[in-house]
Every structure is written in C-alpha cells, then in structure tokens.
C-alpha cells in the first residue's frame, strides 16, 4: 500500500526483489544440474569444463530472461492509458528492486466475483464484463500488444455491484509485437486458457490467442466451469478439445444460456485461428449489440 502525496490517493505497490529472483533462478538451475550432471558422466576434465561453461552461460540467460519479464511489464504498462487496464502511476528501479505503483483495485478478481455471485453470471452481466475486456483488448491490439495470459484471475473488479468497471491486469506475459514479426513462439501463460496454436510452438501464434482465452473466460462466466482442463498434462489434441466442446454443448446448463451468448463463445473457441473472430468482430457480435442498450445503462449507472 502506498499514497500519492499530491492527491492523497491510495495506490497498490508491487515490489519485485531482483536479488531474491536471481537466487531462485540459480537454485532451480542447480537442482536441475544435480539431477543430470554427475561426476561419472564426464571422465575427461576437458568435457567437464565445457559442460560447466555451457551451464554458466545458460544460467546467465535464464537470469536475464526473468529480469526482462518485469522490465517489459513496466515499460508496457507505462505506455498504456485505458479505463479497463490497470493504471501505472510510477515505476522506480534500483539495482536490486523494482517498485511498481499502480491503481488500487479492492474488490478482488473475477474468479472470486463469480463465486460471490453463486458460481456463474446471467447473460447481461456476463456481456457487460466481456465487452469491457474486449475494449481493453481492442486498445492493446491496436498498439501491437498481446496479453497472452487472459483469465479470470487477471481481471479485477472495482466493486461487487452489478455492472461495475473491470480492469485487466498482470502484464508479465504480455508482448509488444513489432510489425516485422508476424508470429510468436514462446510457450507462456495459463494452459487451461491457452489457444491450441500456442501449444503447437513450431507453427507459432498471433494475437488471436487472446480471443481464444476470452472465449474460455466467457464460458466460465456463463457456466461456472472451465471448458478445457489440465491442458498441458493431458497433452491435448484438437480432437480431445473438440470432445470437451461437445460435452460443454451437451450440458443442460449450457443450453439454458441464450443462443447469442453461446454463438459468441463458439466463434471464439475456433481451432483454426484464421477463422476465429477478431476483436472488432467480437465487439460487433449480436450478443453485444442485442444486450448493449441495457448493459450500457447498467454500466453507466454503476460507474457514476
């Protein structure tokens, strides 16, 4: 917790201990080394020295990679200004610590809010939340930024009232994609919400992964359950995920949801990324166009 001196405004302060982070990376690497690097494996001292040198170089790259995550998050957030994206007030970096002073959001995350509401939301309230996240994604994608870890835990609630403002947070996995780079390849994010092309790292992926994740979030809002579970440990294929979708669509709770909402989710959870709707198409989907007059009124009332 911190205070902005000029206004007295309360801020959240995220503290990154770089020294502890480095030590954690070193411990992880040494544990891995102890499992694979044995005296008997390398009888010749020359081979052993080469392996030790390679290990040290790899360790340095890992340390720098972890540090870059926090620096990148700070740089990205400093460049953004949108009501549905966490606001950074100030970033202070020292040799051993990074301090991120950001907007204080006190009502918890979306996952907790779903539990508070009894496990799922009705169509209108779900539409209000999804549309706000879409507006944040539209803003990001226009600026070449891909979030890559969209999930209920990374969406914060400004209050527990229906129609409240929601805020997208945690940009540790976010990436600024230059116009010359069309596809990304890093396996990152939360696997239960990861698009199928993200798990096929050879072909790479685009900003369309954020739309798949939003489809998963929308399904959680409407049904109270994640459509795809344990995606990494189960080594999912498109066929296994298609079966998960079939189970979802056969569920009685799913069929109680409005047809427009179901169609919206299904157009996001498309395995071929080239056929998945983009942010603009999602914003113009008839689920939002039909609900928007009522949901917009609710949103405005709650934000006054």
What CATH calls the topology of the largest domain is Transferase(Phosphotransferase), domain 1
Unreliable runs: none
Whole-Å distance between the termini?
25 Å
Domain module count? 2
Radius of gyration of CA atoms, rounded to a whole number: 22 Å
> What is the CATH level 1 assignment of the largest domain?
Mainly Alpha
CATH superfamily of the largest domain: Transferase(Phosphotransferase) domain 1
Question: Order of helices and strands, N to C?
Answer: EEHHEEHHEEEEHHHHHH
User: Helix fraction?
Assistant: 40-55%
Please give the order of strands in the largest beta sheet: 1-2-4-3
Q: Using the 3D structure, state the CATH architecture of the largest domain.
A: Orthogonal Bundle
Question: Could you describe the largest sheet, including whether it forms a barrel?
Answer: 4 strands, antiparallel
Gross morphology is globular
For the residues shown, what is the average pLDDT?
84
Structural class estimated from helices and strands: alpha+beta
Count of β-strands = 8
Q: Approximately how much beta-strand content do the residues carry? A: 5-15%
The tally of helices reads 10
Protein name: Ca2+/calmodulin-dependent protein kinase, EF-Hand protein superfamily
Pfam family, one: Pkinase
InterPro entries: Kinase-like_dom_sf, Prot_kinase_dom, Ser/Thr_kinase_AS
Keywords: Kinase, Transferase
Task: Provide an overview of this structure.
This protein folds into two domains: 102 residues, Phosphorylase Kinase, domain 1 (2-Layer Sandwich), CATH 3.30.200; 195 residues, Transferase(Phosphotransferase), domain 1 (Orthogonal Bundle). Helix content is 48%, strand content 12%. Helix 5 packs antiparallel against helix 8. The chain has 304 residues and is an alpha+beta fold. Strand 1 and strand 2 form a beta hairpin. The longest helix is centred in the N-terminal third of the chain and has 34 residues.
